[in-house]
Write a structure and sequence with these properties.
two-stranded antiparallel ribbon, mainly alpha, globular
């Protein structure tokens, strides 16, 4: 049995984004229960030179939305990076999921060797679709999801491994 590019991309991405929504909901509930200004958590970071939680979510959204669109040969819808509340960050993830749900297997399957051009500042790099998915999109998603989890866990939000992994 083989796994298609669609199966290897869209469903696991959507699953991770749903898990991030759950994690953010727990962060919002924690802030409310502990009477913490939610902006404290949203602007928290693990290290002074790292992005805050809000930017972690924005990047996870951008990487996955744009990445799946590139695999499908489409232009992803843009999103402004202006979220300042848990509700806005959750809505951003829901919008990303809604977009990903419009993509079909027919649009993504067969993109293993498709040349993807990835803008990187003033330059761009090119790679085939499969390496783009497995060595850029998914690792970036998991990095920013993990960092979001870690910021909230470090801030006292009761989270466990199953919050990150979600329900099988």
């Amino acid at each position: 049995m083989t796994i298609s590019m669609y199966q290897a991309s869209v469903p696991p991405i959507i699953s991770c984004l749903h898990n991030l929504i759950n994690i953010l909901e727990k962060g919002a509930a924690h802030a409310e229960a502990q009477k913490i200004d939610p902006s404290v958590l949203i602007n928290s970071r693990l290290s002074p030179d790292m992005y805050p939680l809000s930017k972690q979510i924005q990047i996870a959204s951008d990487i996955t939305r744009r990445g799946a669109a590139r695999l499908a040969g489409l232009e992803a819808p843009g999103m402004p990076d202006d979220e300042t509340t848990f509700t806005q960050l959750i809505d951003r993830l829901k919008q990303t999921i809604a977009y990903l749900e419009t993509l079909t297997p027919a649009q993504i399957d067969g993109s293993e060797q498709k040349q993807i051009t990835l803008p990187m500042g003033k330059h761009s790099i090119k790679m085939a679709g499969m390496p783009y998915l497995i060595s850029f999109i998914l690792p970036n998603l998991y990095f920013h999801a993990t960092t979001t989890y870690n910021i909230l866990r470090h801030s006292g939000v009761e989270l466990g491994k199953m919050d990150f992994l979600g329900k099988p």
